[in-house]
Amino acid sequence: MKASVFYGKDDIRFEEVQKPVINDNEILIKLKACGLCGTDIHKVLEESVSKGTVLGHEFAGEVVETGKNVSSFSIGDRVTGGIHVPCFTCDQCSRGHYTLCPEFKKTNIHPGGFSEYIKIPVEHVRHLLYKIPEELSYSEASLAEPVACCIHGQKAVNIHPGDRVLIMGAGPIGLIHAQLLKKQLVKEVVITDVSDHRLNNAHAFGADTIINTAENNLRDYIQENGHPGFDIVIIAAGVSALLPEAMNVLKRGGTVVCFSPFTINPDVTIDAGMFFHDEKSIVGTYSVSPYEFEEALLAIQNGVINTEVLITHEMPLSDLGEAIQLTQKKNENVLKIVLKN
Ligand SMILES: [Zn+2]
Ligand SMILES: [Zn+2]
């Protein structure tokens, strides 16, 4: 079989790899669609994974082989799921921090989503594989993982009806956040970005106001419009300098949700007096627990997520390198790219 294998930021090869062999408790799926995630793009461009890695985790496919002990799935089932499974019993799991479980990152699908066939290990079969509702396409179902991550992130903060929310970053994650928020009767969703292309999409995802922060200063906007500030700020762009800015436009008592990995220049300066005097908070969120997938599939099935506008490109699995290049072109309207097999 073939897979798109990482060798370098400009060197992704669609090449022959060994087709996985399953045991009695595992499942083999034929990949149908795998979404290209911001984290995949970062890993490739920053060359932070080893040569020979097959990336991809937003998969959807068809069951083509089941181990003889597998009774919950059959050949022909259309499925989607996640890649990391917690143990459910350790210290972190017992406190509900499933994504921090020491077993979490040790578990994975094999060889990765950008591959013609994928082996689904036993713990995934038990806890992290879901049948795709009939009316959803494979591409739509591949959005379950990023939607589930956003649901997980929003659970880190108490969202009240009437809240004013700022989302920093109008990429697929920021736009999914916007749609999930609008279903919760928030008063206002403001989205910022430095790209007009990205921002132009944001109204279709429920944004009330868009601000290009390359041209307009956010704090000036707040002052000029007599805006009371935001109850919640979600940072959905991997720029650590956004954190001090988020704290400054937050209402007293508000919360900043750090959704993005701040891997580059993670040290930032914030006024720590705001925690005491203004009761402002910062919360972090990482990945997704098994409990958010069903909610995500329901959100997609019920039309909460505008999949039609969100998926801007469908490309063949062999074009992963081109797909990543495309995301770097400032003049292209690129939101979600789904690789298809
Ligand atoms: Zn993802
Ligand atoms: Zn655990």
UniProtKB/TrEMBL annotation:
Annotated keywords: Metal-binding, Oxidoreductase, Zinc
A matching Pfam family: ADH_N
SMART domains with a match to the protein in the record: PKS_ER (SM00829)
InterPro entries in alphabetical order: ADH-like_C (IPR013149), ADH-like_N (IPR013154), ADH_Zn_CS (IPR002328), ER (IPR020843), GroES-like_sf (IPR011032), NAD(P)-bd_dom_sf (IPR036291), Zn_alcohol_dh (IPR050129)
Domain Enoyl reductase (ER): 8-339
Cofactor: Zn(2+)
Highest taxon above the source species: Bacteria
Gene3D superfamilies according to UniProt: Medium-chain alcohol dehydrogenases, catalytic domain, NAD(P)-binding Rossmann-like Domain
Cross-referenced SUPFAM superfamilies: GroES-like, NAD(P)-binding Rossmann-fold domains
PANTHER family in alphabetical order: L-THREONINE 3-DEHYDROGENASE
Protein family (similarity comment): Belongs to the zinc-containing alcohol dehydrogenase family.
Stated name of the protein: Alcohol dehydrogenase catalytic domain-containing protein
